[in-house]
Amino acid sequence: MNNPKLKGYGFNPSEQILIGYLRDGTLFGRDYLVQDIIVLSHDICSYDPWDLPGCDSVTPNDSERFFIYPKTYKYANSKSKVIGTPTGQVPNSDQRQPMINRATKNGRWKVSGVRVNVKSSDETKQVIGIKTRLYFKHNSCPNKTSCVLHQFQLVGIDPCQDKYFLGKVIMKEFKPTNISSNNINDRISIPEVQVELGPEPLVETEVTNEYEW
What we know:
Elements: H1 15-28, E1 37-39, E2 64-70, E3 107-111, E4 115-119, E5 127-138, E6 147-154, E7 164-171, H2 184-187, E8 202-205
Parallel strand pairs: 1-2, 4-8
Antiparallel strand pairs: 2-7, 3-5, 4-5, 5-6, 6-7
């Protein structure tokens, strides 16, 4: 018997389209236009990456899954530290950012590189969102794993509405078994990514697609 088509299979939207789905659901309460984005009732860090819905069935040709999930802060008062920004602008270094929870049961998501501005494709080139790239690090392994998360968020909206992330999870390996610091490198490939610690600067980039703003 053939297996049913999984959510996320063959789904390859641009960054702007992903921001559009997140914006529509967050601001207008619309039903999502596609069923390929899995809506989680809990923060993505409630799961290890291999325990996320659909991630146990990844293949080399189908390694991406998409999720919308609520933001969870590391401390109860973290959200109150956010300073609002005008529409289309991103926070600068003088504006304190909330501490997002990134720890899972068996590891944590760590930021890799710099945050990137996602801009609209029209002539205004308005900043419509931010993409943060993270990799998963298992508690028992000193090195990064091959699990990658591209996390998208909106900019310039009311903090009371800014409650969700959209995440693109890239799983290049199945769940590792009997993980230890001695055998982890035999089971998980390690991507070559330069990690920068400290404040996360923003780099503008232009991406194009057919999403209309």
